């Protein structure tokens, strides 16, 4: 906090109500409609902040937060309290480095389901495991990984102004899961462009190096796949069992929000000659 504790708990007047603040969508009970926003609140509560967070829930629902902005590593909000000048709250987290993001992007692009969900605007349910496999954490594991401060005279962290900011931040994650990744240093468009490029490179490599057109290998299509290189000009070449699915490349056939080719590929790879 910007003012130091003088030995007595600060005394506050009546909260100044505002008409055009940001109000939480949730009117009662817990705040957070998706697993990833609830996970964020659970992380904060695991740091022993549960009771202090509750103090700001009414602030979030009453619309006392005037503005909320998120950028790499930093969330800043203005919260109207009992004084005429709104308080400024900040919640900071360390962003991932460029090299770390390269590892994350390659890992995400290497898993068709992860890439498909992100491209559809969803957060994969086990994405934390992917980050953990890279030695990284999507959500903070200790309170030391978060820096919180408020310009109010309260010495507690989080104060009710910070708590209200936390709840509205969680709801912003509900609306757009990419906000979590943007906070860690990679915005929506940049990440999606990278995933499209990486996924396209993988598909192009498969078509160019492994899969001749189906019309050239009808007689040998169901032969056992080998690990030897394939001569694209040889009509008797042995190809992968799922090569036919590469003919869908570029064709927008989906089931729900997933690519039909990605859904069928595991079944094709499991087939044996004579099945």
TrEMBL record:
Under InterPro entries, the record lists: Znf_SWIM
- Descriptive protein name: SWIM zinc finger family protein
Pinpoint the SWIM-type domain residues.
142-170
Record keywords, A-Z = Metal-binding, Zinc, Zinc-finger
PROSITE patterns xref list: ZF_SWIM
Q: Does the keyword Zinc-finger apply?
A: yes
Q: Which domain of life is it from?
A: Bacteria
Pfam families given for it? Answer: SWIM (PF04434)
> Does this UniProt record's set of keywords contain Ribonucleoprotein?
no
